[in-house]
């Protein structure tokens, strides 16, 4: 935590048009380089809104965000070059092959020619997809799609990567491959900001987590530290339920 | 530019992999052109050249009036005259029954003695006229009497249009007047010869002094007669071009619903570049559509017995018109695809708005058949501007200069749709370019 933060969020608020309540309220946090930072929270907590603002998709109603020293209001183009985004939905073109999808996204990140070709094959190899490079994505299993979805956000070797529930609805094998690779790139210096509903996964993967509910951060720290502070709860999931309640969320 | 190229390539691949979409874009409009041309050839012919209506003809007269009416109907090339059914000569009851059942639209029955009655009436009128010269004794005049009018019965199918009834009655009346005139002339000849032995009647062929010639003024020297093909090919081509709204909006909304837009917006590329790649692909589709439609008009449609499409000689004007109509339709698609929230909204609004604009624009029914208020509304339909432009090129032989007003209007329409799209995007996503 001694490092200069790579992401600084100051007093961030967002209220959608015609919404009665703000989606996030005065959120402030710093994320350091090389962290795996988990944003946890029930549905509607404000995780996706926070990530969307950090990616430049929505403008905040209030507050400032600095990513690697760049202001999100003025330096968005530069920010987009250094961040990778892996959305919760499979953001791929189903009628294109895996290679065609990745070639398109790679080119949009400014990669080209042999370099792009090699990177695509390298990542396809890492995620066990080399045999499927020329197959149409719509014929892939859920896990295969998730892996291609992840590769599309990693191709340009971003400094910071935002992952919105990257392991939702996939088989155990795919989940292990994805999480192992995230740990691997984190070791190499990539900062990861990650949202999930899987508390156990977050507890093992993240160096720090922030638990959000109703648009605010209600608890933040290292998972082990959070559990240690409340010995009555055995794990992060119990703390999460204690903090956010058992009420069903929309 | 490289990013544009790869975005264009992606759009192109998405389009060619969508077989159903391709069928909608290329095969359906071609089928529409052929079917509509075949259907409307009938209606168009009625206002331009011939009708080809099958008429049941019962000639109980079996004399010159019946023969002349039959000849007259055949000569007009507007009617196919049928005088027997199932190898049996027609009777009035059979003909009436066939019309009643809806098997035929019209049946004409010439009553027995019609010629005789006509001749006697003519003879009476001639004798009355000539009696003024003292040519007839009163006893002779007393023997001649004016007969009651002869009724030629015409049975119409109840669904038949008034315009067709008028046309048919007009055709029969014309034949009748001509026959009567000939009879009057012959009767005069005969009566004078009877009364004046020194008069030597000569055989004179009756000929109408006034005839009609139709002209369709155009910028070309050669007249081009409007027909269903000259109307339908440009009309359905415009319709097909505007129907690009459906696949284009689906493509935009699919990106949004499947989450690709989320990723696209986070890429270091201007969204306008991605949008323009889409525009580029769909513009090419529109132009290819038009080329195929025009080729169908030239090579395919004549195989169905319809006239061949005449493109005129102004190919540059035709190219400009096609590109500008394509721009207008793609702009319209972008606008709807951006504003609509769901596939259902886009499909419903897209297709209904196209049909309304097409109807207003005179694509389904020519403008002159519309009430004045609709003609006024048609001024606001881009499809009307497109149709007017194509008419100017195809039928009036107009050049670039002559289509400039339509080109200008369509360009403004395109510009308007792009501005609305951009403003809507900016309003919805203020941070993204």
What topology does this entry show?
The complex is a heterodimer of chains A (250) and B (433).
Chain A: E1 7-14, E2 24-31, E3 36-40, H1 47-55, E4 62-67, E5 70-71, H2 76-82, E6 83-86, H3 98-108, H4 113-126, H5 142-154, E7 160-164, H6 172-187, E8 191-196, H7 199-205, E9 208-213, E10 216-221, H8 223-229, H9 236-244
Helix pairs in contact in A: 3-5, 5-6
Chain B: H1 2-17, H2 19-48, E1 53-59, H3 64-75, E2 79-82, E3 84-85, E4 88-89, H4 92-100, E5 106-110, H5 114-131, H6 138-143, E6 153-156, H7 162-195, H8 228-242, H9 245-257, H10 260-266, H11 271-300, H12 315-339, H13 343-360, H14 372-378, H15 382-394, H16 400-428
Parallel strand pairs in B: 1-2, 1-5
Antiparallel strand pairs in B: 3-4, 5-6
Helix pairs in contact in B: 1-11, 2-8, 2-11, 3-7, 5-7, 8-11, 8-15, 9-12, 9-13, 11-12, 12-15, 12-16, 15-16
What does it look like?
The complex is a heterodimer of chains A (250) and B (433). Chain A has 250 residues and is α/β, with parallel strands linked by helices. Chain A has a single domain (7-244), classed as Rossmann fold. Helices cover 37% and strands 22% of the residues of chain A. Chain A has nine helices and ten strands. Chain A has helices at 47-55, 76-82, 98-108, 113-126, 142-154, 172-187, 199-205, 223-229, 236-244; strands at 7-14, 24-31, 36-40, 62-67, 70-71, 83-86, 160-164, 191-196, 208-213, 216-221. In chain A, the strands form two sheets. A six-stranded mixed sheet of chain A has the order 6-7-8-3-9-10, sandwiched between helices. In chain A, a hairpin with a 2-residue loop joins strand 9 (208-213) and strand 10 (216-221). The mean pLDDT of chain A is 88. Chain B folds into two domains: 2-45 and 227-428, no CATH class; 51-195, D-Maltodextrin-Binding Protein, domain 2. Helices cover 65% and strands 6% of the residues of chain B. In chain B, the strands form two sheets. Chain B has a four-stranded mixed sheet with strand order 2-1-5-6, sandwiched between helices. Chain B has a two-stranded antiparallel sheet with strand order 3-4. The longest helix of chain B is centred in the middle third of the chain and has 34 residues, at 162-195. The A-B interface holds A 52, 55-59, 72-73, 76-77, 80-81, 83, 85, 87-96, 100, 103-105, 107-110, 112, 136, 152-153 and B 2-3, 6-7, 9-10, 13-14, 17-18, 258-260, 262-263, 265-269, 429-432.
């Amino acid at each position: 935590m001694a490092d200069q933060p790579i992401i600084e969020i100051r007093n961030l608020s967002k209220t959608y048009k015609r919404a009665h309540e703000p989606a996030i309220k005065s959120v402030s946090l710093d994320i350091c380089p090389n962290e795996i930072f988990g944003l946890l929270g029930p549905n509607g907590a404000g995780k996706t809104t926070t990530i969307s603002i950090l990616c430049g998709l929505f403008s905040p109603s209030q507050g400032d965000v600095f990513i690697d020293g760049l202001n999100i209001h003025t330096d968005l183009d530069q920010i987009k070059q250094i961040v990778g985004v892996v959305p919760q939905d499979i953001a791929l073109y189903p009628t294109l092959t895996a290679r065609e999808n990745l070639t398109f996204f790679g080119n949009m990140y400014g990669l080209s020619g042999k370099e792009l070709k090699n990177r695509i094959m390298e990542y396809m190899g890492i995620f066990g997809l080399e045999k499927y490079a020329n197959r149409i994505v719509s014929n892939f299993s859920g896990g295969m799609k998730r892996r291609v979805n992840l590769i599309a956000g990693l191709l340009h070797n971003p400094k910071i990567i935002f992952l919105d529930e990257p392991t939702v609805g996939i088989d155990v094998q795919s989940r292990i491959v994805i999480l192992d690779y995230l740990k691997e790139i984190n070791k190499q210096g990539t900062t990861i900001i990650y949202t999930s509903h899987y508390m156990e996964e977050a507890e093992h993967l993240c160096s720090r987590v922030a638990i959000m509910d109703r648009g605010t951060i209600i608890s933040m720290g290292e998972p082990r530290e959070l559990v240690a502070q409340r010995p009555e709860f055995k794990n992060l999931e119990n703390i999460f339920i204690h903090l956010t309640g058992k009420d069903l969320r929309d | 530019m490289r990013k544009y190229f790869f975005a264009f390539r992606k759009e192109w691949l998405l389009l060619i992999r969508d077989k159903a979409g391709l069928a909608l874009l290329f095969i359906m409009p071609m089928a529409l052109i052929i079917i509509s041309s075949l259907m409307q050839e009938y209606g168009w012919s009625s206002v331009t050249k011939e009708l080809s209506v099958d008429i049941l003809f019962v000639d109980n007269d079996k004399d010159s009036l019946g023969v002349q009416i039959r000849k007259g109907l055949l000569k007009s090339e507007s009617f196919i005259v049928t005088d027997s059914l199932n190898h049996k000569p027609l009777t009035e009851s059979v003909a009436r029954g066939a019309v009643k059942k809806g098997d035929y639209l019209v049946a004409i029955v010439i009553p027995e003695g019609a010629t005789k009655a006509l001749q006697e009436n003519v003879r009476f009128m001639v004798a009355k006229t000539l009696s003024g010269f003292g040519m007839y004794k009163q006893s002779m005049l007393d023997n001649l009497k004016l007969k009651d009018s002869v009724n030629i019965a015409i049975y119409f199918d109840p669904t038949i249009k008034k315009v067709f009834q008028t046309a048919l009655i007009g055709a029969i009346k014309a034949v009748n007047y001509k026959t009567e005139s000939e009879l009057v002339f012959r009767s005069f000849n005969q009566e004078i010869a009877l009364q004046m032995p020194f008069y030597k009647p000569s055989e004179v062929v009756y000929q109408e002094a006034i005839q009609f010639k139709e002209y369709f003024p155009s910028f070309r020297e050669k007249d081009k007669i409007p027909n269903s093909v000259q109307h339908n090919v440009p009309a359905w081509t415009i319709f097909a071009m505007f129907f690009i709204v459906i696949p284009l909006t689906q493509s935009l909304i699919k990106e949004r619903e499947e989450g690709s837009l989320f990723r696209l917006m986070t890429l270091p590329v201007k969204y306008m570049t991605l949008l323009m790649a889409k525009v580029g692909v769909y513009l090419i589709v529109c132009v290819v559509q038009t080329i195929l439609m025009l080729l169908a008009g030239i090579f395919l449609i004549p195989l169905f017995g319809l006239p061949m499409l005449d493109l005129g000689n102004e190919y540059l004007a035709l190219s400009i018109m096609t590109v500008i109509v394509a721009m207008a339709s793609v702009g319209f698609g972008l606008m709807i695809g951006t504003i609509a929230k769901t596939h259902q909204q886009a499909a419903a609004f897209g297709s209904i708005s196209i049909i309304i604009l097409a109807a207003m624009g005179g694509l389904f029914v020519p403008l002159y058949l519309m009430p004045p208020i609709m003609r006024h509304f048609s001024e606001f339909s881009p499809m009307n501007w497109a149709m007017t432009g194509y008419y100017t090129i195809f039928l009036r032989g107009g050049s670039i200069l002559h289509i400039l007003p339509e080109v200008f209007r369509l360009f403004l329409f395109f510009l308007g749709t792009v501005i609305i799209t951009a403003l809507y995007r900016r309003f919805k996503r203020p941070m993204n370019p």
